[in-house]
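Chapter review: from sequence to fold.
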Amino acid sequence: MRRLHQPLRHYGHRKRDRADVPPGGAGRDAVSEPAGNPAPALPPPESPVQTLPAPASGTQPPRNEPPPDEAPRHRRHWLWITALVLIIIAIAAYLFFERYRASAANSAKMPAAPVVPVTVATATPGSIGVYLEAIGTVTPVYTDSVTAQQTGVIVAVNYKEGQVVHKGDRLIDLDDRPYQAQLEQAQGALERDRNLLAQAQMDLKRYQDAWARNGIARQQLEDQEMLVKQDEGTVKNDEGTVRYDQVQIEYCHIAAPIDGRVGLRLVDPGNLVTANATTALLVITQIEPITVVFTLPENDLGQVLAPMHAGKTLPVEAWDRQMTSKIATGALETVDNQIDTTTGTVKLRAEFANGNEKLFPNEFVNTRLLVKTLTNQVLVPSSAVQHNGDQSFVFVIRNNQAAMVNVKPGISEGNNTAVQGIKAGDVVANSSFDKLQNGSKISISTVKLPATSAESSVP
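The token string follows.
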């Protein structure tokens, strides 16, 4: 009801003004007449809702149409928005132009790129070996755990701990007096039986002479011959007993079975040992020569067997755990006869002279087996080869300027790497890689510089 009241009231007011104003502007004069002649008061409305006069015939009052002055106002609103957008675009263009002009001015004022001091290396032609690397264990050729073959009391220990002994050196003595007594008994029996044999041989000689003169029966001669043979057998048995007792005495004096180094002492004088016991009296390990056992993947076995079947001796190097120092150089001795199915590897044994005793039994070492040698290779220092993802490159120096050249690295040996993509004689950068770019100006330094450094001084 309220929403309907406002438009109707507005419409009636406009109609009333239009109807009350006489032609010729009398209405304007009536409005402006002096205060002394007030206009007659209007009668109070009979109801809150004013009754509007009916419009003239043939005309309809506009409903819900904007006032006539709102259309120009709407157009002025869009004109202001368009002007504001244009002003913003103009300001942005001005700021961009000023920033571009300032950047161009700063670029013109920037100094030239600095000269980078570098150390250089020359690519050289040469040969490089193809090595198979593995972890190995130093394994003695012989390791003997010496046990007692005779029961007795230890009377002497004739070695020092860690001593290098030779085959036949007496190491431990047992009390051999019981066995000496047995030996003397056997020797006495042997002497007795030898004399009985001699007597039987003398009787046989007499019987043979009597038989020649037909003085005795043939049966008596044959019996004497058999008696002589029995005595000969008895003498041989006694000789065997004597030799057996002599061996038992030798078992009481334990000697070194091989050349090698003795370990820590395990027994002391006065200890009672028993024959064929499982407890070792001492352990001897051969150290010259010595071997290294290592494993290789089965895929590398072909590279090893081919030169071996051709009769070539493959050299093997033993290095320390950090791969910084070479311990010894030896040769491949043999390959195991089967592949371990659980690991897919095969064992190999290399032998080393070990005259300086640098290889110690059960020591872990790194091994490098040379399977072939590549010739006519271009070699550069491994530190000169740089990597960017899967791509490798070097900086080639030409006319005091660094040029980035992509290379294909190959086999590395020591501090050198075989590369493809450059030729022998090319000079490559070997330092200051954090400052070098393609086309950088350089100066060759005679002082060794780090490969990557935040600061470097020009010599």
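Two observations follow directly from the output. The two ends are 99 Å apart (CA to CA). Residues 1-43, 45-59, 453-459 have pLDDT under 50 and may be disordered.
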